[in-house]
Design goal:
Layout: H1 4-25, H2 27-45, H3 50-80, H4 86-100
Helix pairs in contact: 2-3, 3-4
C-alpha cells in the first residue's frame, strides 16, 4: 500500500524551495523577517492574550502570503513580458500594493 504522506513530500520540498527563493531574492522579505521577529517578541513581552496573539500571527501570515504571491506575479510577468510594458508595470505595482495593504 502506498504511503500518502510520502507521496506528498516532493510538494513540500517545492514549497520550501519557493520560500527560500523569496528569502534569497526579495530584499523586502528581510524587512518582513525582522518585523515578524520584533512584533512577536513585543507581543510576548506585552503578554498579549492568546486571542490577540493568534490574530497577530494570522496577520503576519497574510503579509507573508501577499509577499510570496507578489514574487510569483513578478516572475510570471518577467517571463511573459521581458520588455518594459505598461501592463507589466501595472501587474507588478498592484502586486506590491497588495503587500503594502
Amino acid at each position: 500500500m502506498k504511503n500518502p504522506f510520502r507521496d506528498r513530500l516532493p510538494a513540500f520540498k517545492h514549497a520550501f524551495e519557493g520560500f527560500i527563493h523569496v528569502l534569497q531574492t526579495q530584499k523586502n522579505s528581510w524587512i518582513h523577517s525582522a518585523a515578524t521577529i520584533l512584533v512577536i517578541i513585543a507581543a510576548i513581552i506585552a503578554k498579549l492574550p492568546a486571542l490577540h496573539l493568534a490574530i497577530l500571527l494570522i496577520m503576519i501570515g497574510l503579509v507573508w502570503v501577499a509577499e510570496i504571491f507578489n514574487t510569483s506575479i513578478e516572475a510570471l510577468v518577467d517571463l511573459i513580458s521581458p520588455d518594459h510594458h505598461p501592463l507589466a508595470k501595472i501587474a507588478k505595482d498592484t502586486g506590491a500594493a497588495a503587500v503594502l495593504i
